[in-house]
Protein: Protein NrnU
Organism: Ramlibacter rhizophilus
Amino acid sequence: MVVLILGLVVFLGVHSVRIVAEDWRTRRVAGMGEGPWKGLYSLIALVGFVLIVWGYGLARQDPVVLWTPPRGMAHLAALLTLPAFVLLVAAYVPRNAIRARVHHPMILGVKLWALAHLLANGTLADVVLFGAFLLWAVFDFRSARRRAPDAGAPAGRGSGGATAATLLVGVAAWALFAFWAHGWLIGVRPFGM
């Protein structure tokens, strides 16, 4: 569990700089340059991510069960991740209406992903992992809205073509992950297939 917690501290810590130290971040970017800042940021985030994956894998070997969710929660979680994937894609497709409407779709997608996994999993490692991401997303969303309510949102309502592409790619990515990649990477098949 120590490795998992360390990974969360590193990964979510670097992703929390704008939440807790926006002025410090601005000075660092100005001093280092945007490229070196992004490189250092990415390296630290990668180290944190590797620690999370390793630590979660270790914690799953000897799970501490807090509760056993009903089987239907796994199906509910799998379905709740569908809009999470669409929101993630919406963060990257220019001029889509979803991004224009919610302004911070990736953060909302992380919230939904974490909540879905909290509903379907009852071990201590799951609560630590998904609970940490959910708390981070709540604070990050508030911070992003406070910094600039319309940050990252394209002007207008978005185009129909971009929105359709967002939905199509999001649903396809979700289906690929839910029906194949989740079982292959995580060892859990959300729909039991």
Q: What stands out?
A: The CA atoms of residues 89 and 170 lie 6 Å apart.
